[in-house]
# Entry
Amino acid sequence: METKQITALDEPAIWLGCLSCYNNGRLNGKWISAEMATEPEAAETLNGLAKLVELGDRTENRCRKCYGDEFEVMDYQLIPKSCANAKTFYENAEQLNELHNTDQLALIVLLAENIDTGGRMDLDELIRYHEANYAGEHDSAKEFGEDYAEQVGDLDAVPEHMRNYIDWEHYATELLYDYWKTSGHYWRSV
# Structure
């Protein structure tokens, strides 16, 4: 299996390392992108970091350098905390890669950093929350208020000549009791 070296730091990836090597003062591991993790049989050998060893009636992954059997995600980038373990990462690699290619992954990660600090929500829960509650990206609270009023039809009740007198910042402040924002992105609070 040919392995791709990650050069860009803008793709979802984990740094997977051998825990036994680490505990013995050696750094043995590699960056594995979601794209690399979707390759056939990638999870079986942890993208070449391990080798499959037959132990009686079962097979296990063992480190190629020290023969250790514990691998740990020691760093990760552009993935929610709930996907930051090897098993979950490999299970969700295809979905993470697809989200990254459609530019939705950064929003899911931003959402997870704000509402799922303990990493308990799985990727599907985060995606459902995002799809049901995302209100868009806006440069200011005023812009958010104006956009919201237009979307829900509140502006239809206000004559055109009176719209300049609306205090959009106050309107948005009231909306933020039901919404929250981070980095210019708004989600409805649930």
The first helix runs from residue 19 to 23. The beta strands are 13-18, 29-33, 50-55, 58-63, 71-77, 134-137, 179-182, 185-188.
